[in-house]
Amino acid sequence: MMKLAVYCGASTGKAGASYQAEAAALGRLMACQNIELVYGGSSVGLMGAVADTVLAEGGRVCGVMPQVLVEREQAHIGLSELHVVDDMHQRKAVMMELADGFVALPGGTGTLEELFEVWAWRQIGIHQKPFALLNTDGYYDHLLAFIEHACEEEFVRPEYRDFLLVEADSERLLDRLHAVTGVE
């Protein structure tokens, strides 16, 4: 069984309905394909939307949440498993250990920080796991343009840029992750 870490917002964002719909689509596909969700453990925002959908479709959901956020972000009480950890560093380490791959949905600084740490760790060889952006409604277009700029300025090597998988559709994204991981 593949375990996929999903990074995303604890809010729904300005285009909430669209972002929530794609988060739910990803959750349905994950449950249908027997992919376990590993995520930040919240019951709100896009995190709640993807977790609720996986659970509603009979899938497994593992949350990882620092104690300081358990009450503030409303830890999801219906999860298959919840790891309460000491801090954000431990959260990221546990999620890294549990997951076979990583996907970032729309989110803020926390989502970006998690994505870039996974990317940096892959670049220096700490892991060989795939990671991806689900670019719902072009949310990450400006970030992708910046990454291209960083390549042109020779701060990011093209082979490191190419580690990042990008799709606007959940089904295509999961197909690519299956192909890369080989995990069913």
In short:
The chain is an alpha/beta fold. The protein has eight helices and seven strands, in the order E-H-E-H-E-H-E-H-E-H-E-H-H-E-H.
Strand order of the largest sheet: 4-3-2-1-5-6-7
N→C terminal distance:
6 Å
Which fold name is given in CATH as the topology? Rossmann fold
The CATH class designation is: Alpha Beta
- The shape, in one word, is globular
Unreliable stretches covering 5 or more consecutive residues: none
Number of helical regions: 8
- Determine Rg (CA atoms, Å): 15 Å
> Could you tell me the strand content as a percent range?
15-25%
Describe the overall structure.
This protein has helices spanning 16-32, 45-56, 67-72, 88-98, 109-123, 141-152, 158-161, 170-181, and strands at residues 3-7, 36-39, 61-66, 81-85, 101-104, 131-134, 164-167. By secondary structure, it is of the alpha/beta class. The model has no long low-confidence stretch (mean pLDDT 94). It has a 7-stranded parallel β-sheet with strand order 4-3-2-1-5-6-7, sandwiched between helices. It is globular. It has 8 helices and 7 strands, in the order E-H-E-H-E-H-E-H-E-H-E-H-H-E-H. Helix 1 runs parallel beside helix 2. Helix content is 48%, strand content 17%. The chain has one domain: Rossmann fold (3-Layer(aba) Sandwich), CATH 3.40.50.
List the helices and strands and how they pair.
Layout: E1 3-7, H1 16-32, E2 36-39, H2 45-56, E3 61-66, H3 67-72, E4 81-85, H4 88-98, E5 101-104, H5 109-123, E6 131-134, H6 141-152, H7 158-161, E7 164-167, H8 170-181
Parallel strand pairs: 1-2, 1-5, 2-3, 3-4, 5-6, 6-7
Helix pairs in contact: 1-2
